[in-house]
Specification:
By secondary structure, this protein is mostly helical. It contains 27 helices and no strands. Helix 8 runs parallel beside helix 10, helix 21 packs antiparallel against helix 22 and helix 26 packs antiparallel against helix 27. The radius of gyration is 30 Å and the shape is elongated. Keywords: Cell membrane, Membrane, Transmembrane, Transmembrane helix.
Length: 699
């Protein structure tokens, strides 16, 4: 049981390194409690105002300010909370003015304006990331304006409670008690480096064998690298932290895989020779130290010469022995090339956040054309239908229908369908759990209330990673909270489930029937753009570490966008199969293709440079041109919807030219071997994308 608990903790930390999101959830809990307490204090000095109503308004304002501000640096979060707080204060102030002007019909007018607020909020989602969060927050928070005017308007206290909630969120979130994204990154980077160094020792047969050294597998490195990626995403671009970027970590993993694969393919005699070679052992030890610390260590022969150890380890173990078979020679050259890459990638003098240049997204027509008019129309029509159904059938909480519509509607039909399934499943689970827990705690209302409060951090932890779980937690705490605070019978709260189903159905119908935003065309366009970006990257010159990593980062960003669209596309094409197999080989192939394109380009740069310096025979240049054309033809074939291309004899010619044209030049030999290896990988990736029906027909 202790081991299972440890595994759960490790899994949570790898998806939420340092507990950064968990701490934001704790801050949300403290914000809600603090806002409720302060609102009750204010209510005690204001006769005639409901303390419960003011507490709900303050908690809603503070909670939304914190929930819709992503984890970032302290400065960025302060700015985000202030901007959202000002927006909600203006929203609440508008609600107070409308309620005052409307008089006795305030409730009806505010309910009608809710649809307008929803349409405006959804329209603003096209303006950028902040407005994607702020627009949805506006649509949700107008509900609290409507509810606060039931039984009498709070008047000026509406915007005052918005300010109170914002200030509470600001103090709690940006106070001294919060984990540092930079320190968390350094800890995670150190864990990655240690695991990489240990894995290299294992691959090379240099493991110590002590009981304290746990075995490391490549999937362990992948999990740690995902943790590193999360940390890097939380660092702001202006951060000047230097270390191992996620892109460098990916390349290290690939290099380590090459070492393991090449060593496994060596003959038994070759493996024994390497294990007994002092030069090989020293090279491995220096690489292990470099991976672990990011710093070099000088060779024993260099200590008295004032050298710092920043030069790569010598490849004296790579002997040009005539007795060595061509196969063993090929695999040893792969190891030597991987060692060279590991030395360069393990340095600690590279920026963690790579500068990708400015992305000017200013479209013609300005902000007006950026507004999401189609999504706004879908939201307005769905909200109007949902609210009408709630009134027509006299549902206990008709606003839950409209609230569900706000939550499930997304920018594409596939995303809406996915969110609908998650919302219904999560709500059902949360309601059922509340029904099961209630009998056991019927006589302990204080325990129920504590359970509700403790559940709040879980919402933040799972909100971005698994909305179904987050939705279940929200439903649980809402049902338990209403039953405890307002005394509603638990049996009546079943209505939350069918209200949610009605709202989700109306929202999905609007997304499906009213100018549906299907991702088929956009997916095909993104796929074509991505393949062309890979092909253009392949054509460009490489060889500079910073430029290569930046190009890899750009391709990975494009790949992530493509994968997200592909998921929506699969859901639209085959909803049920997409839920049972939400991940596809396509996701892996798209990411891996970018990595091998950059690696091939680096190897080609090495070959080109060494060919010129060594004045090798001209046949090498012609063969390199043939290999480039082979890859160009394969990219064109995938884009045009044609079958796999073949060039008979190219691989044989390449292997034959390697010993004849490159003997005596280690850099040329290793680059030559790497080019062939990575070209194979690119062709296999493209062939895999073809089998996955990446593009059904020409792009």
């Amino acid at each position: 049981m202790l081991q299972a608990a440890s595994d759960i903790k490790t899994s949570l930390l790898r998806t939420d390194p340092g507990g950064l999101r968990l701490m934001r959830g704790v801050h949300l809990m403290l914000t809600v409690l603090g806002a409720v307490f302060l609102a009750n204090v204010v209510a005690s000095f204001v006769p005639g105002q409901s303390a419960f109503k003011l507490a709900v308004l303050a908690a809603a304002s503070g909670g939304h300010c914190l929930m819709f501000t992503p984890v970032s640096t302290r400065k960025a979060e302060v700015l985000g909370i202030l901007k959202l707080g000002v927006l909600l204060t203006l929203l609440f102030a508008l609600g107070a003015v409308v309620a005052e002007v409307s008089g006795k019909s305030a409730s009806t007018v505010l309910q009608g304006l809710w649809i307008a607020a929803i349409m405006l909020g959804f329209a603003m989602q096209g303006l950028g990331p902040f407005w994607q969060r702020a627009g949805r927050s506006m649509a949700i928070c107008w509900l609290f304006v409507v509810l606060s005017n039931v039984g009498g308007s709070p008047g000026l206290w509406l915007p005052v409670m918005a300010v109170l909630g914002m200030v509470t969120a600001l103090v709690v979130r940006t106070g001294p008690w919060r984990p540092s994204t930079y320190r968390t990154y350094l800890r995670v980077e150190a864990a990655n480096r240690q695991a990489m160094a240990t894995y290299l020792r294992q691959l090379s047969g240099r493991a110590t064998g002590s009981s304290g050294d746990a075995a490391v597998r490549i999937r362990d490195l992948a999990k740690l690298r995902m943790e590193l990626q999360v940390c890097a995403d939380l660092l702001r671009p202006e951060g000047e932290l230097q270390g191992m970027s996620p892109e460098a970590a990916i390349m290290v993993e690939l290099a380590l895989e090459v070492v393991g694969d090449a060593r496994a393919q060596l003959s038994r005699d070759a493996r024994i020779r390497l294990a007994q070679d002092d030069g090989f052992r020293r090279a491995v030890d220096r690489l292990v130290h470099r991976l672990d610390t990011g710093e070099g260590v000088p060779e024993e022969s260099d200590i008295g010469e004032g050298k710092t150890g920043e030069s790569a380890p010598a490849a004296s173990w790579l002997q040009a022995d005539m007795a060595v078979t061509a196969h063993d020679r090929f695999q040893e050259l792969r190891i030597a090339q991987a060692f060279k890459r590991l030395w360069l990638l393990a340095a600690k003098d590279q920026p963690v956040r790579l500068s990708l240049g400015t992305d000017d997204d200013s479209r013609e027509g300005g902000w007006l054309r950026k507004l999401s008019w189609r999504l706004s129309l879908q939201a307005g029509v769905a909200a109007g239908i949902g609210f009408s159904l709630g009134l027509a059938f006299d549902l206990n909480h008709a606003y839950w229908v409209t609230l569900t519509i706000i939550i499930v509607l997304s920018n594409s039909l596939g995303a809406t369908l996915l969110r609908t399934a998650q919302r219904i499943g999560g709500t059902a689970g949360g309601v059922v759990l509340a029904m099961l827990v209630d009998p056991a705690l019927a006589e302990f209302p204080s325990v129920r209330l504590v359970l509700v409060v403790v559940a709040i951090p879980g919402v933040i932890v799972f909100l971005d990673r698994n909305y179904a779980i987050a939705s279940g937690i929200i439903s649980f705490l809402v049902v338990m909270g209403l039953q405890t605070l307002e005394g509603l019978p638990i049996d009546e709260l079943w209505s939350r489930l069918y209200d949610t189903m009605i709202g989700a159905g109306v929202g999905l119908a609007a997304a499906w029937l009213l100018f549906p935003n299907r991702t088929g065309a956009s997916f095909k366009g993104l796929a074509s753009d991505y393949l062309n970006a890979c092909r253009n990257c392949l054509r460009a010159e490489g060889g500079k570490a910073d430029t290569d990593l930046q190009d890899l980062a750009r391709l990975r960003t494009a790949a992530s966008t493509l994968i997200a669209t592909a998921r929506s596309y699969r859901i639209e094409q085959a909803p049920w199969s997409s839920f049972t197999r939400s991940a596809s080989d396509l996701n892996v192939l798209v990411i891996v293709l970018a990595q091998y394109v950059v690696l091939y380009r680096e190897a080609r740069s090495d070959v080109t440079r060494e060919t010129v310096e060594a004045q090798a025979r001209s046949g090498i240049e012609a063969l390199v041109a043939r290999m480039d054309k082979r890859l160009e033809d394969e990219f064109s074939a995938v884009l045009d919807g044609r079958p796999r291309q073949t060039v008979p004899g190219l691989e044989d010619d390449w292997m034959t030219a390697m010993p004849e044209g490159a003997t005596g030049n280690l850099a040329l030999e290793t680059g030559w071997v790497a080019m062939l290896y990575h070209a194979r990988k690119i062709v296999r990736c493209l062939d895999g994308l073809r089998k996955e029906k990446f593009l059904s027909g020409p792009a």
